[in-house]
Amino acid sequence: MKKTCDKKTFKIVTFGCKVNFYESEAIKENMIQNGYEYTPSKAADIFVFNTCAVTLVAEHKCLKHIKSVARKYPGCQIVVLGCFAQLHPEQIRDISNVKVLIGSMYKNHIVEYLKSSERVLKADQNMRLANYEELKINDFGSEVRAPVKIQDGCDNFCAYCIIPLTRGKSRCRKKEDILDEIHRLAVRGYREIVITGIDMGSYVDGNTKFSDLVEDILNVEPKTFRLRVGSLETSQFDEKMVELYINNPRLVPHIHIPLQSGCKNTLERMERKYNLDEFYDLVLRLKKSVKNLALSTDVIVGFPGETEDDFIESCNFVKKVGFMRLHVFPYSIRPYTKAATMANKVDRTCVKNRVRVLVGIGEKLAADYENKYMGKELELLVEEELEPEGTTRVFRGYTENYLNLKITSNRDISGRMMKVRVSEKNLYSN
Fold it and tell me: pTM of this prediction?
């Protein structure tokens, strides 16, 4: 493999959530600053795997890819970090070319560990005792949209979730560091900032809570970017947060509020921190007050003890809310969680059938939402150029309410905000 000035090449493979993608970008910048050369090609001297453990499927995907690279490139060095590495280091440490295994901490030390003459295995720390590890980015590939991490960890301990153990306690980034990073990204020309975290709504720094932080971000200069909130729990919407959505058009009206189940009994067994009445009351308030509101959510199907009636109740609630996008997940047993020891596990064939039904409901709701905006003018952030249609250039991006649209132009309009009228012709699905 040809290398520039004998620099070691590296590539990063990222699984899972937006926080992982942010952290991978920070690791990439740090390695480049320390003399390593990033390569998009299949082969590299160093492979960095940022892993996920939210489901058993995610774990298998991570391990399969790591082993495949180890076999295909026996001379490479492998770095493994993230939730799967934290949860199951024993499944990784025996892979001979794994040089660094660090779990969910020490991400700022990867360069140091790579230069060490010793193999580094540090994935056995108790993440409930961890402090916030500051990572920074200055760039994110293309100057359009950039995520900014504000928080890590979770203290909710929902019955099905392993993340409080793999990511640790909730801990927050200093407000000044967040605002400085957003200022740098805005100056560089980024048109959308997506704030992200594991449990963002639990953010606190001194007297600053989450809604205060959002207000401060919206006041960062230059005010040339729109702001998207990655995900927010029902219980974490205070009055100020609702008012910000109502009154500030730069805070985009696409809101992801995790539901997990629309069945009262299932929700209680999941040990979520809200009930369906509270969820629906918030939805009604937002629908009444926020222009072009778009609600998306996550729903778990086949949680232990979920009966057919429970599933029907959950489907009916989803339809009642009218989400514009639905992320449906079959329940996955996670070790060390309460749900793992619950009785009345649901048959896997039954779970697959229920997933198929709920996905169908989600597709119908998405089509209904799109139809509601036919002929209406929205603001599109142009993110990328697609293959041309004949001699016409074609671009794609998201509107403020997260409709995925394409637009034609004779010139390069990447990174620009454009007024677009929604039609069947410009809806885009890849």
Answer: 0.94
